[in-house]
Amino acid sequence: MFTLFQTPQWFAGFDLLFDTITLLIALLITAYSYKLYKLSDENKFFYFSVAFALMSVGFLFKLGTYLTIYSPASQYAAAVTIVKVTNSQGIGSIFRNLLYRAGYFVQMASMLGSWLLLFFVSQKGRDRLNKMHERSQILLSIYLITLIAVVSTFEYRIFYLTSLVLLALIVLHLYENHRLRRSQNSKKVLLAFLLLLAAQISFAFIFIVPELYIVGELLTLAGFGTIAATYIAIQQKTKQMANSEVLR
Question: Is the domain covering 9-247 a CATH 1.20.1070 domain?
Answer without folding.
Answer: yes
